[in-house]
Design a protein that fits this description.
This protein is of the alpha+beta class. The chain has a 7-stranded mixed β-sheet with strand order 14-26-25-24-15-22-23, with helices on both faces. β25, α23 and β26 (653-655) form a beta-alpha-beta unit. The longest helix has 31 residues, at 105-135. The two termini are 53 Å apart.
């Protein structure tokens, strides 16, 4: 194998394993690759330039937000060619199945909301200007003219801009339920109908300004709320797309590329070095090492040969394998994890936010008050027109504008504060849920630790021996070889003259130095004894093998975060797929007494579920595909930006830096945000206590209604900005 090369982009130095799968003869058109290590504009330019320069490529476009590249070709091009080219410039790439990826509905919905917000804002400003003349004392035909002009602006603008509220209200009314959009929609419609009725009768008061301003403020709240969720996508969908769409099958002595959907149990698959397994199966020929991090989270490769069981999604590293399929399609391990994630996401979506709870109480109360006002004034005066106007005024002035802004204003303010610390809030209810936690569960590799092996120390050996080790290591992409080579290069170690270098899949690298056989690799292969920890050994002829010990390093800030969580009285656990010895070592180093080792993705999710069943409220922090089910099962979850796409998607919060102490203070901000939300509800309640009697007394003119709604909206927004 060739030496690893590194990207010129300083943000993205990453050494990839190429994923090798082939397109069929008729497979040309769009190819979609996920690029988990791109971070900036320089990455986009480098990737697009490299892909566009390849033969038969008509276009290549990179989406930095989704970390994907879409490639259009005019002929059949093997996918491994794209991945190899990107690997040569230091970018990791994996093929996605485009048929399983949907266009972002969230982006389209955001654009529509922003357009409606702009229309309502423009109309509001013009209607308010016209209303100034009316409020200033215009009467007679002049007042009627201003009212009719206001109607021509406000009615179509409001009908268009308020559609999200009308649609939501109708959807729940059809099922005989109420939500916050029911009184909102009723207030807007009554304001328009009453205003038109009064205008046709040359009435003194019209609520066109109140209707359009109410629509504008509520759309602003809806858009703020939408922005906090705009990064959310389906983790289950992302997992499904990671399933390899094609496979190489050996039939009648010939290898052919087929779609994975056509595979059946018993098929013999050829798994080349660098390719992911599309099915679960048993090795029937070949020797190699397999990266199982997609399912276990641990980056240390595992030796496999005939008889070993492999699972879909695992990455073959060094040697070709023949695998007999034992589970295909929906029966594979990767698909079962995807199903588990989808179930967990569905369960979490049933979480009821504070705003929803308030709406369930507020909506019927508003309707009752408006109805009582209408009945009371009609019985008192017998004037249907006046009674309807007062009932409309009650409904308008009590319309939940402040309540509609109470949560998104706080969420947006808190998100902005945390973003300055490098934290991206993806879920609208994440802060509410974080404020409720009492237990924090960490993944180990890639979360508490950096997830890459590091040479503990150079052994006491001759310089020539270290030069031989450097030469052998330079011929392998194995993680331990790369770590060893990096450490030796840092010492300025030169290369020895080693000839006939050859990598033996699953065992290591061998060659000849001064006529002697030299080997770098597994303990049993070179004749060394080793029963714990992570190590590789150098054997020179008949000399005693030299061991190189490796260890993972704690992520920066891990100790500070753990200490803060403990100081807040939270229980801290470690949940890992690594060996008990490795997990125990990290737990002792951080002072964590509760940990579990050797966990699978499904058992991790079960562990979280058992904590919930015992009355605990869990925050899960993890980074791998093996953590996605646990992340979605937890009450709330966090992932680093370095996590795989599916893990980031499954999480409620993503931290963008490399330090864990960025998370220090998150629980405090969550607690503050909940206090501010409750204060905003109190402000909205106080507003109603003052405004409702005025409206019921028949004193709520359009001017009072518009000013009251604006004042309440501004007040809750200013209160939200107090978060520190």
């Amino acid at each position: 194998m060739s030496e690893t090369t590194f990207s010129a982009c300083p943000a993205c130095n990453a050494a990839p394993f190429a994923e090798q799968t082939a397109l069929g003869d008729d497979a040309h058109g769009n190819v979609v690759l996920t690029l988990p290590t791109i971070h900036c504009a320089a990455c986009i330019s480098a990737v697009e330039r490299t892909l566009s320069a390849m033969p038969n490529v008509t276009s290549a476009r990179v989406n930095l937000t989704l970390k994907r590249a879409t490639i259009e070709t005019d002929a059949a091009v093997p996918v491994e060619d794209f991945i190899k080219e990107l690997g040569a410039i230091g970018y990791e790439a994996h093929e996605l199945d485009p048929s399983l990826l949907m266009q972002s509905e969230m982006e389209r919905a955001a654009r529509k909301l922003l357009t409606r917000l702009a229309v309502s804002g423009f109309a509001m400003m013009n209607v308010m200007l016209l209303s100034v003349a009316v409020w200033s004392g215009a009467d007679g035909i002049t007042r009627d003219m201003f009212h009719w002009i206001s109607a021509m602006i406000a009615v179509p603008a409001t009908i268009y801009a308020a559609q999200p509220f009308f649609t939501s209200a109708w959807s729940v009314l059809r099922h005989r339920h109420l939500n916050m959009d029911v009184p909102i929609s009723l207030a807007i419609l009554l304001a328009l109908v009453t205003s038109l009725y009064e205008t046709t009768l040359s009435g003194e008061h019209a609520y066109f300004d109140a209707a359009i301003s109410l629509t504008f403020f509520l759309l602003a709240g809806r858009y703020l709320d939408h922005r906090t969720r705009s990064m959310a996508r389906s983790a289950a969908q992302e997992l499904s797309a990671l399933e390899v769409p094609r496979a190489i099958v050996r039939r009648d002595g010939r290898d052919e590329t087929v779609g994975v959907k056509s595979l059946v149990v018993g098929d013999i698959l050829v798994i080349r070095p660098g390719a992911r397994l599309p099915v679960d199966g048993d090795v029937i020929d070949g020797t190699s090492e397999v990266d199982r991090s997609i399912l276990t989270g641990e980056t240390r490769p595992e030796f496999v040969n005939i008889g070993h069981a492999l699972r879909a999604g695992e990455l073959n590293l060094t040697g070709p394998l023949l695998v007999r399929a034992t589970a295909v399609g929906q029966d594979t391990s990767l698909h079962q994890i995807s199903e588990l994630v989808a179930i967990a996401e569905s369960g979490r979506s049933k979480y009821t936010s504070i705003a929803d709870k308030a709406a369930s109480l507020y909506a019927p109360g508003v309707h009752i008050l408006s109805a009582i006002s209408f009945i009371g004034w009609f019985l008192y005066s017998g004037d249907l027109r006046m009674s309807l106007n007062i009932a409309s005024a009650v409904l308008i002035i009590t319309c939940p504008c402040a309540l509609g802004l109470a949560v998104p204003a706080v969420t947006t303010a808190a998100s902005g504060r945390l973003y300055k610390k490098g934290l991206l809030i993806k879920s609208a209810t994440a802060l509410e849920r974080i404020a409720q936690i009492d237990t924090v569960v960490f993944d180990k590799t890639g979360t508490l630790t950096n997830g890459t092996p590091r040479l503990v120390s150079l052994p006491n050996a001759q310089a020539t021996h270290l030069q031989i080790a450097a030469t052998l290591a330079s011929h392998s992409n194995h993680p331990l070889s790369r770590a060893l080579l990096s450490a030796l290069d840092a010492q300025g170690m030169s290369r020895a003259q080693v000839t006939d270098v050859n990598e033996v899949p699953g065992f290591g690298i061998e060659g000849r130095f001064d006529g002697m056989l030299v080997r770098l690799g597994r303990a049993e292969w070179v004749g060394a004894t080793h029963d714990q920890g992570t190590a590789t050994f150098l054997a020179i002829g008949d000399q005693t093998p030299i061991g190189f010990e490796f260890a993972d390093t704690l992520r920066l800030g891990a100790r500070d975060l753990i200490n803060e969580l403990k100081a807040q009285g939270l229980d801290v656990h470690i949940l890992s797929g690594d060996t008990e010895l490795a997990v125990k070592s990290v737990a002792q180093d951080l002072g964590i007494t509760t940990f579990a080792a050797g966990e699978t993705p499904i058992s991790k999710a079960a562990y979280i579920s058992s904590l919930h069943a015992s009355g605990k409220t869990v925050l899960m922090i993890g980074d791998g595909l093996n953590d996605t089910a646990a992340l979605t099962t937890a009450h709330v979850s966090i992932s680093p930006a370095s996590a795989l796409d599916a893990a980031r998607v499954a999480s409620d919060i993503v931290f963008l830096g490399a330090r864990l102490d960025q998370l220090v203070g998150v629980v405090g901000v969550a607690d503050q945000s909940q206090r501010r939300i409750k204060e905003n509800f109190q402000i909205a309640t106080l507003y109603n206590v003052v405004a409702v009697p005025i409206a019921i007394a028949g004193l709520a003119t359009p001017l009072i209604a518009a000013l009251a709604m604006s004042l309440s909206s501004i007040t809750v927004t200013l209160n939200a900005l107090r978060i520190k």
